[in-house]
Amino acid sequence: MRAARATTLAVVLLGASFPAFGASEGLETLEEAFAVETRLFEAAFLRYRTIRGEQRQSLEALKRASREAEAALQSQTLGVAVLWDLDAAAEGALHELVAVSSRAGEHRRTVLRHLERLTELGTAIERLRDRSLVRTEKLDGRWRLELSPSEVGLLDLRLDGTLVTGAYRLSGGEQGSVRGTYANHRLELERVDTVGGVDMRLSGVHDPETGEISGRWETRGPSDVSGSAGGRDAVTGAIRGSVETPEDEGELRDLTGEWAARKISPSQEE
Q1: Strand partners, 179
Q2: Residue 177 has pLDDT above 70, yes or no
Q3: 3-state class of 64 per DSSP?
């Protein structure tokens, strides 16, 4: 029996259909697969955060090298050979940023693939459990989070009376906690980033029939919820990784967008 479950678990993780087992054993297999996929997601997310740190360092190195080359050229006091060396250093820093950004993109796509598999496994678990309306309405558990225009992640929620606590992780590398209230199917949350503190408010309505949450987020920009140099900031639309800094970079303005969440796994205590 254990060998059969192990074989089924491997097939589930590969995304294929699996042989017909009893409902109880099939559910247990899917839950084991979900646990394994969660650990793989955590490991992939950690690798992505590491490469994002390297990406930020490469960007700063490019900015420094570009400033030095430009200042030397404008001063007109250095020899041509020195100017060529500084230009070569700036060019090398640019190539390094492109290379590390490419690796960051690969890691980000790996995280997204794990998120997709977690979603599919969670949906299969929900079907096998044949959750009733009362069970679907429960807020506790893990949710697949989508923040417009292009950010996705995982959101873990726990409800105690009307008080909500939890944690989130985004494919852009951000992570932290959430806190708020839930009453009459309406959810009000504050997002607390591990680096920036309280940086976003989310309001949403939980539909007990579909088990989905949808609503709007708001923050004070500029803010980056998407993550990689060379693309556009998901909130402000500014080019990330640009050496030139916009004149209004330090200005803050109200930013809003839509968000949605769909439960992919119930609370482990259920």
Answers
A1: 165, 190
A2: yes
A3: helix
CB within 8 Å of 144: residues ≥ 6 apart: 115, 118, 119, 122, 152, 153, 154, 155, 261, 262, 263, 264
Output the pLDDT for position 25: 66
Gyration radius of the chain over CA positions = 23
Q: What is the pTM of this model?
A: 0.54
Q: What gap in Å lies between CA 167 and CA 165, rounded to an integer?
A: 7
Residue 110 to residue 89: CA distance in whole angstroms:
32
Greatest extent of the chain over all pairs of C-alpha atoms, in Å: 81
108 neighbors 228 (Cβ within 8 angstroms): yes
Decide if 154 contacts 167 (C-beta within 8 A): no
pLDDT tens-digit series, residues 20-58: 445 566 778 888 888 888 889 989 989 998 999 999 999
List of residues 6+ apart from 153 with CB closer than 8 A: 115, 144, 145, 147, 168, 169, 170, 171, 172, 174
Helix H or strand E encompassing 95: helix 80-129
